[in-house]
Amino acid sequence: MALISVVSPKGGVGKTTCVANLAYGIRRLGYRVVVVDFDAQNALRLHFGVPLSDGDGYVHDAVETDDWRTLARPVAEGVYLLAYGDVPREERRAFDRALEQPGFLERPLSSLTATPGTVVIADLPPGDSNALWAVSRLADLRITVLLADSASVSLLPRVEEGHFYPEDVPAGSHHGYVLNQVDPRRRLNTEITDFIARRHGSELLGLIHHDEAFPEANSRQRSVFEQAPNSRGAADISRCVARILEQLAEMDGTAVVEVPGGAS
Predict the structure, then answer these.
(1) CA dihedral for 127, 217, 2, 145, sign (positive or negative)
(2) Fewest 10 Å CB contacts: which of 53, 72, 76, 120?
């Protein structure tokens, strides 16, 4: 029973693609997975076969109920989605204001993690947001997604020095980095990858290499495991999932330690 938040200091790093494929990867090991989209772009749904014309989401009802299990839709065997939804501006503002209220998310997110063997992944908007502060205070594991480029490196000190996440994160909460779109053919990319690997060591949960399997899978609204099971991208996601589960297993009493079933 664990909550993972995934965020980036900047947009355009492939964060939502990472979230979707991590969800599929964790599910493959037998866990029940719930993914929650906190980004008003409402893009996460497109990775789970939801039609572009389907604007249904949880935000419309999120403020009125604290049991979000009723708002989740099954999108694959063992995978459930709370899409942000196409909601009017005033509803978005009302939800954003609610996120500022201390304790607003505790019961809704607890309802999602209540089922044994469940991992909840929150896809947060890029940069600073009310969702970042509200979810980070509850997350068992906070994942920061970066690119191996100069823009990400310039923002790295904000995360390292504690200026990005709230100060009052849980004492037992873990933090890690995922470096996305790693391309060994590019010298600067390789140098930045090596720099972050040396700097953060065990906090670096995974390197996800640039692989055309990801955009091909996205275009078909499938996981990389379905699209290209033998690809480098699929292997990278699998290794990242293994590291994430190792992190969760180190937490006493907060995370799923044993796989509650076989691979699916």
Answers:
(1) negative
(2) 53
Contacts of 238 (CB under 8 A, 6+ apart): 25, 28
Query: How far is residue 90 from each of residues 59, 66, 93, 145, 214, measured CA to CA in Å?
Result: 11, 20, 5, 30, 35
Give me 48's structure tokens: 């789970």
Considering the chain, what is the average pLDDT of its residues? Answer: 92
Q: What gap in Å lies between CA 180 and CA 206, rounded to an integer? A: 8
Work out the average pLDDT over 239-248. 95
- pLDDT tens-place string over residues 52-75: 999 999 999 999 999 999 999 999
pTM: predicted TM-score of the whole model, two decimal places:
0.93
* Structural tokens at position 175: 């933090």
Nearest to 80 by CA among 40, 42, 41, 49: 49
Residue 81 token pair: 């989605």
